[in-house]
Amino acid sequence: MPSAFETPESVMRRALELAAQGAGFVEPNPMVGAVVVDDDLQLLGEGYHQRFGGPHAEVHALHQAGERARGATLYVTLEPCCHQGKTPPCTAAVLAAGIKRVCVAALDPFPAVAGQGVAQLRAAGVIVETGLLEVEAVQLTAPFRTLIQYHRPFVIAKWAMSLDGKMAARTRISRWISNAASRAIVHQLRGRMDGILVGIGTVLADAPLLTARPAGPRMASRIVLDSHARLPLLSHLVRTAEQTPVLVFVTPAAPIGRVAALQAAGVEVISVTADARQHPDIAECLQELGRRRLTNVLVEGGSAVLGEFFDRQLIDEVQVFIAPILIGGQGANSPLGGQGLDSPEFAKRLSGIQVTNVEGDVFVRGRLSRYPDEIR
Predict the structure, then answer these.
(1) Tens digits of per-residue pLDDT, 51-70?
(2) Maximum distance among all alpha carbons in the chain?
(3) Is-catalytic flag, 58?
(4) How far is 136 from 139, CA to CA, in rounded Å?
(5) Over the stretch 183-222, which tens digit does the pLDDT of each residue have?
(6) Cβ within 8 Å of residue 143, ≥6 positions away
Protein backbone atom coordinates (compact mmCIF):
# COMPACT_ATOMS: atom_id res chain seq x y z
CA MET A 1 0.00 0.00 0.00
CA PRO A 2 1.59 3.30 -1.06
CA SER A 3 1.89 6.10 1.48
CA ALA A 4 1.83 8.83 -1.17
CA PHE A 5 1.15 9.27 -4.87
CA GLU A 6 2.96 11.23 -7.56
CA THR A 7 -0.01 12.19 -9.75
CA PRO A 8 -3.84 12.18 -9.67
CA GLU A 9 -3.71 9.41 -12.29
CA SER A 10 -1.68 7.21 -9.95
CA VAL A 11 -4.28 7.71 -7.23
CA MET A 12 -7.09 6.61 -9.55
CA ARG A 13 -5.05 3.65 -10.76
CA ARG A 14 -4.74 2.53 -7.16
CA ALA A 15 -8.53 2.84 -6.83
CA LEU A 16 -8.97 0.68 -9.94
CA GLU A 17 -6.56 -1.94 -8.55
CA LEU A 18 -8.57 -2.05 -5.35
CA ALA A 19 -11.86 -2.31 -7.26
CA ALA A 20 -10.68 -5.37 -9.19
CA GLN A 21 -10.28 -7.26 -5.91
CA GLY A 22 -14.07 -7.45 -5.69
CA ALA A 23 -14.37 -9.65 -8.80
CA GLY A 24 -16.63 -12.59 -8.09
CA PHE A 25 -17.73 -11.27 -4.70
CA VAL A 26 -19.85 -8.20 -5.49
CA GLU A 27 -21.98 -9.16 -8.48
CA PRO A 28 -24.57 -8.12 -9.56
CA ASN A 29 -23.14 -4.90 -8.10
CA PRO A 30 -20.20 -3.25 -9.88
CA MET A 31 -16.60 -3.46 -8.73
CA VAL A 32 -15.67 -0.11 -7.16
CA GLY A 33 -12.53 1.22 -5.46
CA ALA A 34 -11.94 4.43 -3.52
CA VAL A 35 -8.93 6.34 -2.15
CA VAL A 36 -8.82 9.37 0.15
CA VAL A 37 -5.81 11.70 -0.09
CA ASP A 38 -4.81 15.11 1.21
CA ASP A 39 -3.70 18.07 -0.90
CA ASP A 40 -0.19 16.58 -1.21
CA LEU A 41 -1.60 13.24 -2.40
CA GLN A 42 -0.66 11.59 0.87
CA LEU A 43 -2.78 8.48 1.46
CA LEU A 44 -5.37 8.87 4.21
CA GLY A 45 -7.62 5.89 3.54
CA GLU A 46 -8.63 3.39 0.89
CA GLY A 47 -11.12 0.62 0.31
CA TYR A 48 -13.20 -1.32 -2.16
CA HIS A 49 -16.62 -2.92 -2.42
CA GLN A 50 -15.85 -6.32 -0.92
CA ARG A 51 -19.11 -8.24 -1.12
CA PHE A 52 -22.66 -7.88 -2.36
CA GLY A 53 -24.83 -6.28 0.31
CA GLY A 54 -21.81 -5.00 2.23
CA PRO A 55 -20.48 -1.44 2.63
CA HIS A 56 -19.45 0.32 -0.57
CA ALA A 57 -15.91 1.36 -1.43
CA GLU A 58 -16.37 4.97 -0.28
CA VAL A 59 -17.52 3.88 3.17
CA HIS A 60 -14.46 1.66 3.66
CA ALA A 61 -12.08 4.41 2.52
CA LEU A 62 -13.73 7.12 4.63
CA HIS A 63 -13.76 4.88 7.70
CA GLN A 64 -10.04 4.23 7.33
CA ALA A 65 -9.34 7.95 6.90
CA GLY A 66 -11.44 8.91 9.93
CA GLU A 67 -11.27 12.58 10.94
CA ARG A 68 -8.48 13.15 8.44
CA ALA A 69 -11.09 12.93 5.65
CA ARG A 70 -12.39 16.40 6.51
CA GLY A 71 -11.20 18.77 3.79
CA ALA A 72 -9.61 15.90 1.82
CA THR A 73 -10.16 14.55 -1.70
CA LEU A 74 -11.93 11.30 -2.51
CA TYR A 75 -11.00 9.40 -5.68
CA VAL A 76 -13.60 6.82 -6.69
CA THR A 77 -13.87 4.64 -9.79
CA LEU A 78 -17.67 4.93 -10.08
CA GLU A 79 -20.08 7.72 -9.26
CA PRO A 80 -21.20 7.55 -5.59
CA CYS A 81 -24.73 6.21 -5.20
CA CYS A 82 -27.39 8.59 -3.93
CA HIS A 83 -30.23 6.17 -3.15
CA GLN A 84 -31.10 3.80 -0.35
CA GLY A 85 -30.41 0.23 -1.46
CA LYS A 86 -29.00 -2.59 0.66
CA THR A 87 -26.80 0.12 2.21
CA PRO A 88 -27.33 3.85 2.82
CA PRO A 89 -26.40 6.31 0.02
CA CYS A 90 -22.68 6.95 -0.32
CA THR A 91 -23.28 10.63 -1.05
CA ALA A 92 -24.51 11.01 2.53
CA ALA A 93 -21.33 9.37 3.85
CA VAL A 94 -19.18 11.67 1.71
CA LEU A 95 -20.94 14.77 2.98
CA ALA A 96 -20.87 13.61 6.61
CA ALA A 97 -17.12 13.00 6.36
CA GLY A 98 -16.50 16.60 5.24
CA ILE A 99 -14.85 15.70 1.91
CA LYS A 100 -14.23 18.89 -0.06
CA ARG A 101 -13.47 17.37 -3.48
CA VAL A 102 -14.47 14.18 -5.29
CA CYS A 103 -12.80 12.84 -8.40
CA VAL A 104 -15.00 10.31 -10.22
CA ALA A 105 -13.67 8.10 -13.02
CA ALA A 106 -17.01 7.14 -14.61
CA LEU A 107 -20.70 7.86 -14.10
CA ASP A 108 -23.03 5.10 -12.92
CA PRO A 109 -25.53 3.90 -15.59
CA PHE A 110 -27.95 2.59 -12.94
CA PRO A 111 -31.14 4.69 -13.39
CA ALA A 112 -31.41 5.54 -9.67
CA VAL A 113 -27.96 7.19 -9.89
CA ALA A 114 -27.03 8.13 -13.48
CA GLY A 115 -25.51 11.56 -12.74
CA GLN A 116 -27.71 12.30 -9.75
CA GLY A 117 -24.97 11.35 -7.29
CA VAL A 118 -22.62 13.91 -8.81
CA ALA A 119 -25.40 16.51 -8.92
CA GLN A 120 -26.25 15.95 -5.25
CA LEU A 121 -22.65 16.41 -4.17
CA ARG A 122 -22.26 19.58 -6.23
CA ALA A 123 -25.49 20.99 -4.85
CA ALA A 124 -24.02 20.54 -1.36
CA GLY A 125 -20.91 22.52 -2.32
CA VAL A 126 -18.51 19.66 -2.99
CA ILE A 127 -16.15 20.10 -5.94
CA VAL A 128 -16.71 17.17 -8.29
CA GLU A 129 -14.56 16.29 -11.29
CA THR A 130 -15.31 13.40 -13.65
CA GLY A 131 -13.53 11.48 -16.40
CA LEU A 132 -10.10 10.65 -14.94
CA LEU A 133 -9.19 7.20 -16.35
CA GLU A 134 -12.78 6.86 -17.50
CA VAL A 135 -12.00 4.29 -20.21
CA GLU A 136 -10.32 1.96 -17.72
CA ALA A 137 -13.16 2.38 -15.23
CA VAL A 138 -15.80 1.65 -17.86
CA GLN A 139 -13.94 -1.46 -19.00
CA LEU A 140 -13.75 -2.70 -15.42
CA THR A 141 -17.50 -2.35 -14.97
CA ALA A 142 -18.49 -3.67 -18.42
CA PRO A 143 -20.36 -6.71 -16.99
CA PHE A 144 -22.42 -4.48 -14.69
CA ARG A 145 -23.08 -2.03 -17.53
CA THR A 146 -24.12 -4.80 -19.89
CA LEU A 147 -26.64 -6.07 -17.33
CA ILE A 148 -28.03 -2.59 -16.67
CA GLN A 149 -28.12 -1.35 -20.27
CA TYR A 150 -28.86 -4.53 -22.22
CA HIS A 151 -30.62 -6.58 -19.53
CA ARG A 152 -28.44 -9.61 -20.12
CA PRO A 153 -25.22 -11.04 -18.72
CA PHE A 154 -21.75 -10.21 -20.00
CA VAL A 155 -20.76 -13.16 -22.20
CA ILE A 156 -17.25 -14.61 -22.15
CA ALA A 157 -16.52 -17.21 -24.83
CA LYS A 158 -13.80 -19.67 -23.87
CA TRP A 159 -12.17 -22.42 -25.87
CA ALA A 160 -8.94 -24.36 -26.18
CA MET A 161 -7.55 -25.27 -29.57
CA SER A 162 -4.52 -26.69 -31.31
CA LEU A 163 -2.14 -24.57 -33.34
CA ASP A 164 -4.06 -25.60 -36.47
CA GLY A 165 -7.33 -24.41 -34.97
CA LYS A 166 -8.95 -27.67 -33.84
CA MET A 167 -11.04 -28.00 -30.67
CA ALA A 168 -10.98 -31.79 -30.88
CA ALA A 169 -9.86 -34.63 -33.11
CA ARG A 170 -12.17 -35.90 -35.86
CA THR A 171 -13.31 -38.51 -33.31
CA ARG A 172 -14.56 -35.60 -31.11
CA ILE A 173 -12.04 -36.52 -28.40
CA SER A 174 -10.77 -33.28 -26.86
CA ARG A 175 -9.04 -34.30 -23.62
CA TRP A 176 -6.67 -32.72 -23.26
CA ILE A 177 -5.70 -30.02 -25.76
CA SER A 178 -4.59 -27.39 -23.26
CA ASN A 179 -2.14 -28.13 -20.46
CA ALA A 180 -2.80 -28.41 -16.73
CA ALA A 181 -1.76 -24.81 -16.03
CA SER A 182 -4.23 -23.51 -18.61
CA ARG A 183 -6.99 -25.67 -17.19
CA ALA A 184 -6.26 -24.25 -13.73
CA ILE A 185 -6.86 -20.74 -15.11
CA VAL A 186 -10.19 -21.90 -16.54
CA HIS A 187 -11.25 -23.21 -13.13
CA GLN A 188 -10.36 -19.85 -11.58
CA LEU A 189 -12.49 -18.17 -14.23
CA ARG A 190 -15.38 -20.55 -13.59
CA GLY A 191 -15.17 -19.70 -9.89
CA ARG A 192 -16.22 -16.11 -10.47
CA MET A 193 -18.98 -16.79 -13.02
CA ASP A 194 -22.74 -16.75 -12.44
CA GLY A 195 -23.33 -19.26 -15.20
CA ILE A 196 -21.45 -21.75 -17.41
CA LEU A 197 -23.23 -22.52 -20.67
CA VAL A 198 -22.85 -25.39 -23.14
CA GLY A 199 -24.96 -27.13 -25.76
CA ILE A 200 -26.41 -30.60 -25.38
CA GLY A 201 -23.87 -31.89 -27.91
CA THR A 202 -21.00 -31.07 -25.56
CA VAL A 203 -22.78 -32.76 -22.66
CA LEU A 204 -23.40 -35.94 -24.65
CA ALA A 205 -19.84 -36.05 -26.04
CA ASP A 206 -17.80 -35.03 -22.98
CA ALA A 207 -20.01 -35.65 -19.91
CA PRO A 208 -18.73 -32.44 -18.23
CA LEU A 209 -19.33 -31.47 -14.62
CA LEU A 210 -18.95 -27.71 -15.31
CA THR A 211 -17.85 -26.75 -11.82
CA ALA A 212 -14.87 -24.81 -10.48
CA ARG A 213 -12.24 -26.99 -8.84
CA PRO A 214 -11.30 -25.77 -6.31
CA ALA A 215 -14.42 -23.71 -5.65
CA GLY A 216 -14.25 -19.96 -6.18
CA PRO A 217 -16.21 -17.09 -4.64
CA ARG A 218 -19.30 -17.85 -6.77
CA MET A 219 -21.23 -20.99 -7.58
CA ALA A 220 -22.13 -20.88 -11.26
CA SER A 221 -25.37 -22.36 -12.51
CA ARG A 222 -24.73 -25.02 -15.17
CA ILE A 223 -26.75 -24.01 -18.24
CA VAL A 224 -27.55 -26.35 -21.13
CA LEU A 225 -29.16 -25.49 -24.47
CA ASP A 226 -31.21 -28.61 -25.14
CA SER A 227 -34.08 -28.25 -27.62
CA HIS A 228 -35.66 -31.63 -26.93
CA ALA A 229 -34.69 -32.18 -23.26
CA ARG A 230 -32.22 -34.94 -24.12
CA LEU A 231 -30.03 -34.33 -21.06
CA PRO A 232 -29.45 -37.83 -19.62
CA LEU A 233 -30.85 -38.43 -16.16
CA LEU A 234 -27.64 -40.26 -15.24
CA SER A 235 -25.34 -37.47 -16.44
CA HIS A 236 -22.94 -35.76 -14.04
CA LEU A 237 -25.02 -32.59 -14.31
CA VAL A 238 -28.33 -34.15 -13.34
CA ARG A 239 -26.86 -36.27 -10.56
CA THR A 240 -25.35 -33.16 -8.94
CA ALA A 241 -28.28 -30.80 -9.60
CA GLU A 242 -29.26 -30.72 -5.93
CA GLN A 243 -25.79 -29.42 -5.00
CA THR A 244 -25.15 -27.08 -7.94
CA PRO A 245 -28.05 -25.62 -9.97
CA VAL A 246 -28.72 -26.87 -13.49
CA LEU A 247 -30.82 -24.82 -15.92
CA VAL A 248 -31.93 -26.41 -19.17
CA PHE A 249 -33.35 -24.26 -21.96
CA VAL A 250 -35.70 -26.24 -24.18
CA THR A 251 -38.09 -25.35 -26.99
CA PRO A 252 -41.85 -26.06 -27.09
CA ALA A 253 -40.95 -29.21 -29.05
CA ALA A 254 -39.43 -30.84 -25.96
CA PRO A 255 -41.42 -33.96 -24.94
CA ILE A 256 -43.49 -33.32 -21.83
CA GLY A 257 -42.36 -36.58 -20.26
CA ARG A 258 -38.66 -35.73 -20.67
CA VAL A 259 -39.22 -32.29 -19.18
CA ALA A 260 -41.07 -33.75 -16.21
CA ALA A 261 -38.34 -36.34 -15.59
CA LEU A 262 -35.64 -33.66 -15.51
CA GLN A 263 -37.71 -31.50 -13.18
CA ALA A 264 -38.28 -34.44 -10.85
CA ALA A 265 -34.49 -34.90 -10.72
CA GLY A 266 -33.98 -31.33 -9.53
CA VAL A 267 -33.24 -29.65 -12.87
CA GLU A 268 -34.92 -26.35 -13.70
CA VAL A 269 -36.34 -26.49 -17.23
CA ILE A 270 -37.15 -23.26 -19.05
CA SER A 271 -39.02 -23.25 -22.36
CA VAL A 272 -38.08 -20.48 -24.81
CA THR A 273 -38.86 -19.67 -28.41
CA ALA A 274 -37.19 -21.81 -31.06
CA ASP A 275 -34.95 -20.02 -33.55
CA ALA A 276 -34.82 -20.68 -37.28
CA ARG A 277 -32.82 -23.86 -36.66
CA GLN A 278 -35.31 -25.03 -34.03
CA HIS A 279 -32.77 -24.45 -31.27
CA PRO A 280 -33.46 -22.39 -28.12
CA ASP A 281 -33.23 -18.73 -29.06
CA ILE A 282 -30.03 -17.61 -27.31
CA ALA A 283 -31.03 -13.94 -27.13
CA GLU A 284 -34.17 -14.93 -25.25
CA CYS A 285 -32.13 -17.22 -23.02
CA LEU A 286 -29.78 -14.37 -22.14
CA GLN A 287 -32.70 -12.07 -21.37
CA GLU A 288 -34.03 -14.66 -18.93
CA LEU A 289 -30.60 -14.96 -17.30
CA GLY A 290 -30.45 -11.17 -17.08
CA ARG A 291 -33.85 -11.12 -15.40
CA ARG A 292 -32.34 -13.42 -12.79
CA ARG A 293 -29.47 -10.92 -12.33
CA LEU A 294 -26.73 -13.20 -13.67
CA THR A 295 -23.88 -10.82 -14.47
CA ASN A 296 -21.18 -13.00 -16.06
CA VAL A 297 -21.80 -16.11 -18.17
CA LEU A 298 -19.03 -18.30 -19.55
CA VAL A 299 -19.84 -20.02 -22.85
CA GLU A 300 -17.69 -23.13 -23.22
CA GLY A 301 -19.04 -24.40 -26.51
CA GLY A 302 -18.91 -26.47 -28.54
CA SER A 303 -18.46 -25.19 -32.04
CA ALA A 304 -22.15 -24.85 -32.93
CA VAL A 305 -23.05 -22.93 -29.78
CA LEU A 306 -19.99 -20.67 -29.97
CA GLY A 307 -20.74 -20.01 -33.62
CA GLU A 308 -24.34 -19.10 -32.86
CA PHE A 309 -23.24 -16.61 -30.19
CA PHE A 310 -20.74 -15.14 -32.66
CA ASP A 311 -23.27 -14.89 -35.49
CA ARG A 312 -25.75 -13.14 -33.17
CA GLN A 313 -23.04 -10.74 -31.94
CA LEU A 314 -23.57 -11.83 -28.36
CA ILE A 315 -19.93 -12.44 -27.38
CA ASP A 316 -18.39 -9.67 -25.28
CA GLU A 317 -15.01 -11.18 -24.47
CA VAL A 318 -12.97 -14.16 -25.63
CA GLN A 319 -10.46 -16.19 -23.64
CA VAL A 320 -8.59 -18.66 -25.82
CA PHE A 321 -5.88 -21.19 -25.02
CA ILE A 322 -3.73 -22.18 -28.00
CA ALA A 323 -1.70 -25.35 -27.51
CA PRO A 324 1.53 -25.92 -29.48
CA ILE A 325 0.18 -29.12 -31.05
CA LEU A 326 -1.18 -30.12 -34.47
CA ILE A 327 -4.26 -32.33 -34.88
CA GLY A 328 -5.40 -32.00 -38.49
CA GLY A 329 -8.48 -33.54 -40.03
CA GLN A 330 -11.02 -31.93 -42.32
CA GLY A 331 -13.80 -33.20 -40.10
CA ALA A 332 -12.33 -31.86 -36.86
CA ASN A 333 -14.25 -28.88 -35.49
CA SER A 334 -12.86 -25.37 -35.34
CA PRO A 335 -14.06 -23.15 -32.47
CA LEU A 336 -16.61 -20.99 -34.27
CA GLY A 337 -19.18 -22.88 -36.29
CA GLY A 338 -22.35 -21.21 -37.43
CA GLN A 339 -22.65 -19.12 -40.55
CA GLY A 340 -19.58 -16.93 -40.05
CA LEU A 341 -18.64 -13.87 -42.08
CA ASP A 342 -18.48 -13.47 -45.84
CA SER A 343 -15.05 -11.87 -45.99
CA PRO A 344 -12.03 -11.12 -43.75
CA GLU A 345 -12.77 -7.44 -44.30
CA PHE A 346 -15.78 -7.87 -42.00
CA ALA A 347 -13.79 -9.69 -39.32
CA LYS A 348 -14.45 -8.76 -35.69
CA ARG A 349 -11.28 -7.27 -34.26
CA LEU A 350 -10.45 -7.67 -30.58
CA SER A 351 -9.53 -4.76 -28.35
CA GLY A 352 -7.57 -4.68 -25.11
CA ILE A 353 -5.65 -7.79 -26.14
CA GLN A 354 -3.57 -9.61 -23.53
CA VAL A 355 -1.26 -12.46 -24.53
CA THR A 356 0.35 -14.72 -21.92
CA ASN A 357 2.61 -17.75 -22.14
CA VAL A 358 1.14 -20.41 -19.84
CA GLU A 359 3.85 -23.08 -19.62
CA GLY A 360 3.88 -23.38 -23.40
CA ASP A 361 0.23 -22.69 -24.15
CA VAL A 362 -0.59 -19.23 -25.49
CA PHE A 363 -3.44 -17.56 -23.58
CA VAL A 364 -5.16 -14.78 -25.53
CA ARG A 365 -7.76 -12.46 -24.02
CA GLY A 366 -9.62 -9.63 -25.68
CA ARG A 367 -12.97 -7.94 -26.04
CA LEU A 368 -15.15 -7.65 -29.09
CA SER A 369 -15.68 -4.04 -30.08
CA ARG A 370 -19.37 -4.36 -30.74
CA TYR A 371 -20.68 -1.82 -28.27
CA PRO A 372 -20.32 1.97 -28.31
CA ASP A 373 -17.25 3.29 -26.55
CA GLU A 374 -19.22 4.43 -23.53
CA ILE A 375 -19.59 0.87 -22.19
CA ARG A 376 -16.23 -0.44 -23.29
Answers:
(1) 999 999 999 999 999 999 99
(2) 70
(3) yes
(4) 5
(5) 999 999 999 999 999 999 999 989 999 999 999 999 999 9
(6) 27, 153, 154, 295, 296
